[in-house]
Design brief:
There is one protein chain. The chain has 180 residues and is mainly α. The protein has one domain. The protein has seven helices and no strands. α2 crosses α3, α3 packs antiparallel against α4 and α4 runs antiparallel to α5. It is a multi-pass membrane protein. Keywords: Membrane, Transmembrane, Transmembrane helix. It is found in: Membrane.
Protein backbone atom coordinates (compact mmCIF):
# COMPACT_ATOMS: atom_id res chain seq x y z
CA UNK A 1 0.00 0.00 0.00
CA UNK A 2 2.84 2.40 0.84
CA UNK A 3 4.48 1.85 -2.56
CA UNK A 4 1.16 2.62 -4.28
CA UNK A 5 0.87 5.88 -2.36
CA UNK A 6 4.41 6.88 -3.29
CA UNK A 7 3.78 6.09 -6.97
CA UNK A 8 0.50 8.04 -6.73
CA UNK A 9 2.30 11.10 -5.31
CA UNK A 10 4.98 10.94 -8.02
CA UNK A 11 2.28 10.75 -10.71
CA UNK A 12 0.43 13.69 -9.17
CA UNK A 13 3.54 15.87 -9.13
CA UNK A 14 4.54 14.75 -12.65
CA UNK A 15 1.17 15.65 -14.15
CA UNK A 16 1.03 18.99 -12.35
CA UNK A 17 4.56 19.67 -13.65
CA UNK A 18 3.29 18.84 -17.14
CA UNK A 19 0.00 20.73 -17.34
CA UNK A 20 0.72 23.93 -15.41
CA UNK A 21 3.97 25.00 -17.17
CA UNK A 22 2.66 24.02 -20.61
CA UNK A 23 -0.49 26.09 -20.14
CA UNK A 24 1.42 29.06 -18.74
CA UNK A 25 3.82 28.90 -21.69
CA UNK A 26 0.87 29.05 -24.09
CA UNK A 27 -0.59 32.03 -22.23
CA UNK A 28 2.76 33.87 -22.15
CA UNK A 29 3.38 33.20 -25.86
CA UNK A 30 -0.25 33.44 -26.83
CA UNK A 31 0.15 35.08 -30.26
CA UNK A 32 2.70 32.47 -31.33
CA UNK A 33 0.47 29.65 -30.04
CA UNK A 34 -2.60 31.13 -31.72
CA UNK A 35 -0.72 31.44 -35.01
CA UNK A 36 0.33 27.77 -34.80
CA UNK A 37 -3.25 26.74 -34.01
CA UNK A 38 -4.61 28.65 -37.01
CA UNK A 39 -2.10 26.81 -39.25
CA UNK A 40 -3.47 23.43 -38.12
CA UNK A 41 -5.54 21.41 -40.62
CA UNK A 42 -8.90 22.65 -39.45
CA UNK A 43 -10.84 25.88 -39.87
CA UNK A 44 -9.36 29.15 -38.65
CA UNK A 45 -12.40 29.62 -36.43
CA UNK A 46 -11.78 26.27 -34.71
CA UNK A 47 -8.08 27.11 -34.43
CA UNK A 48 -8.89 30.41 -32.72
CA UNK A 49 -11.35 28.71 -30.38
CA UNK A 50 -8.82 26.03 -29.47
CA UNK A 51 -6.20 28.73 -28.87
CA UNK A 52 -8.41 29.99 -26.03
CA UNK A 53 -9.78 26.68 -24.79
CA UNK A 54 -6.65 24.49 -24.67
CA UNK A 55 -4.43 26.62 -22.39
CA UNK A 56 -7.35 27.29 -20.04
CA UNK A 57 -8.29 23.61 -19.94
CA UNK A 58 -4.68 22.52 -19.41
CA UNK A 59 -4.27 25.00 -16.55
CA UNK A 60 -7.56 23.85 -15.01
CA UNK A 61 -6.42 20.22 -15.18
CA UNK A 62 -3.13 21.09 -13.49
CA UNK A 63 -4.89 23.01 -10.73
CA UNK A 64 -7.52 20.29 -10.19
CA UNK A 65 -4.71 18.03 -8.97
CA UNK A 66 -4.19 20.29 -5.95
CA UNK A 67 -7.39 19.42 -4.06
CA UNK A 68 -8.06 15.79 -3.13
CA UNK A 69 -11.77 16.26 -3.90
CA UNK A 70 -11.08 17.17 -7.54
CA UNK A 71 -8.33 14.69 -8.38
CA UNK A 72 -10.70 12.19 -9.98
CA UNK A 73 -11.73 14.94 -12.41
CA UNK A 74 -8.08 15.90 -12.93
CA UNK A 75 -6.98 12.36 -13.79
CA UNK A 76 -10.01 11.84 -16.03
CA UNK A 77 -9.50 15.10 -17.94
CA UNK A 78 -5.76 14.51 -18.17
CA UNK A 79 -6.40 11.07 -19.68
CA UNK A 80 -8.97 12.45 -22.14
CA UNK A 81 -6.66 15.26 -23.25
CA UNK A 82 -3.81 12.82 -23.74
CA UNK A 83 -6.04 10.48 -25.78
CA UNK A 84 -6.94 13.44 -28.02
CA UNK A 85 -3.29 14.51 -28.33
CA UNK A 86 -2.12 10.95 -29.08
CA UNK A 87 -4.79 10.63 -31.78
CA UNK A 88 -3.88 14.00 -33.32
CA UNK A 89 -0.12 13.39 -33.25
CA UNK A 90 -0.65 9.88 -34.67
CA UNK A 91 -2.39 11.45 -37.65
CA UNK A 92 0.48 13.93 -38.00
CA UNK A 93 3.01 11.06 -37.92
CA UNK A 94 1.02 9.29 -40.63
CA UNK A 95 1.16 12.55 -42.66
CA UNK A 96 -2.59 12.58 -43.13
CA UNK A 97 -2.46 16.36 -43.64
CA UNK A 98 1.04 16.76 -45.02
CA UNK A 99 3.43 18.98 -43.08
CA UNK A 100 1.91 20.89 -40.17
CA UNK A 101 3.51 22.99 -37.41
CA UNK A 102 3.50 21.80 -33.83
CA UNK A 103 1.20 23.90 -31.66
CA UNK A 104 2.39 22.40 -28.39
CA UNK A 105 4.22 25.49 -27.20
CA UNK A 106 7.87 26.21 -26.51
CA UNK A 107 8.27 23.44 -23.94
CA UNK A 108 8.27 20.63 -26.53
CA UNK A 109 8.76 22.52 -29.80
CA UNK A 110 12.14 20.85 -30.47
CA UNK A 111 10.58 17.39 -30.63
CA UNK A 112 9.71 15.77 -33.92
CA UNK A 113 6.28 14.23 -34.39
CA UNK A 114 7.42 10.66 -33.63
CA UNK A 115 9.16 11.71 -30.39
CA UNK A 116 6.12 13.78 -29.52
CA UNK A 117 3.90 10.74 -30.06
CA UNK A 118 5.98 8.59 -27.71
CA UNK A 119 6.02 11.35 -25.10
CA UNK A 120 2.23 11.69 -25.33
CA UNK A 121 1.76 7.92 -25.06
CA UNK A 122 3.94 7.97 -21.94
CA UNK A 123 1.90 10.76 -20.36
CA UNK A 124 -1.31 8.97 -21.35
CA UNK A 125 -0.13 5.84 -19.53
CA UNK A 126 0.89 7.93 -16.51
CA UNK A 127 -2.54 9.62 -16.49
CA UNK A 128 -4.34 6.28 -16.75
CA UNK A 129 -2.24 4.76 -13.95
CA UNK A 130 -2.99 7.80 -11.79
CA UNK A 131 -6.70 7.43 -12.55
CA UNK A 132 -6.58 3.73 -11.63
CA UNK A 133 -4.80 4.51 -8.34
CA UNK A 134 -7.24 7.33 -7.56
CA UNK A 135 -10.16 4.94 -8.08
CA UNK A 136 -8.39 2.25 -6.00
CA UNK A 137 -7.79 4.61 -3.07
CA UNK A 138 -11.32 6.01 -3.31
CA UNK A 139 -12.81 2.50 -3.28
CA UNK A 140 -10.69 1.36 -0.33
CA UNK A 141 -11.07 4.34 1.96
CA UNK A 142 -13.34 4.08 4.95
CA UNK A 143 -16.32 6.40 5.43
CA UNK A 144 -14.47 8.12 8.30
CA UNK A 145 -11.35 8.71 6.21
CA UNK A 146 -13.54 10.07 3.40
CA UNK A 147 -15.15 12.54 5.83
CA UNK A 148 -11.75 13.55 7.18
CA UNK A 149 -10.36 13.95 3.66
CA UNK A 150 -13.27 16.22 2.75
CA UNK A 151 -12.93 18.30 5.92
CA UNK A 152 -9.27 19.17 5.39
CA UNK A 153 -8.13 16.33 7.68
CA UNK A 154 -9.48 17.95 10.85
CA UNK A 155 -11.12 15.54 13.29
CA UNK A 156 -13.66 17.57 15.23
CA UNK A 157 -14.92 14.58 17.25
CA UNK A 158 -11.68 13.74 19.01
CA UNK A 159 -11.66 10.32 17.35
CA UNK A 160 -15.18 9.43 18.49
CA UNK A 161 -18.14 8.82 16.25
CA UNK A 162 -21.00 11.28 16.50
CA UNK A 163 -23.09 8.77 18.48
CA UNK A 164 -20.27 8.23 21.00
CA UNK A 165 -19.65 11.92 21.62
CA UNK A 166 -20.23 12.71 25.26
CA UNK A 167 -22.77 15.45 25.81
CA UNK A 168 -22.96 17.08 29.23
CA UNK A 169 -26.11 16.12 31.14
CA UNK A 170 -27.19 19.76 31.30
CA UNK A 171 -27.47 19.89 27.51
CA UNK A 172 -29.45 16.66 27.22
CA UNK A 173 -32.47 17.98 29.09
CA UNK A 174 -33.67 21.45 28.39
CA UNK A 175 -36.30 22.65 30.84
CA UNK A 176 -39.57 23.85 29.35
CA UNK A 177 -40.90 27.26 30.16
CA UNK A 178 -44.09 27.10 32.21
CA UNK A 179 -47.06 29.25 31.21
CA UNK A 180 -48.56 31.12 34.09
Amino acid sequence: MKAKKIIYQIILITLMALWIPISLDKFMNYELFKSAMIQQPFSDQLGESLAYILPALELAVGLLFILPKTRLWAFSLSSLLMVAFVAYVSLAVLKVWGKIPCGCGLVFHQLGWVSHLWLNIGFLLISLLGLALELYFHKNETPKSRILKNSADIDFTGGQSVNETKVPVELKTIPRLQKE
